[in-house]
Amino acid sequence: MTSTTKAGDPIVVMATIMAILQREFPTLRKTALVADTPLLSAGLLDSFAVVTLIASLEEAFAIDIDVEATGLEQFESPQTMVQLCMVCMAAAAAGGKSAGG
To answer: Domain range spanning residue 21?
Structure first.
């Protein structure tokens, strides 16, 4: 994410997450992703994919996701990931190291 991008804008965060999902997981390119698309419960992603996803989100948004405090349910849909990333970005802006759960 570039410094000119409004990282704290939920619309930009959603667009970035959608792009990450389609870039990192080619099978999702055939899926009509929307904010509440169930990814884990529908079997579109598994726990191994979440590891890749965490690394991609941390890089894209310059955040730290506390994997011990973050449940898999926070990766259930693009919308839940937006919420997680927004919390992590707020924590980073406030001087916190990481956020989650």
So the answer is: 10-93
Interval 89-101: pLDDT, tens: 999 888 865 556 5
The mean-pLDDT minimum among 2-6, 11-15, 20-24 falls in 2-6
Rounded to whole angstroms, the Cα distance separating 44 from 7 reads: 26
- Which token pair is 46? 């598994």
For residue 3, give every residue at least 6 positions away whose Cβ sits within 8 Å of its Cβ, in sequence order, or none.
none
Counting the structural domains of the chain, the total is: 1
pTM, full prediction: 0.86
Is residue 62 assigned to a domain?
yes
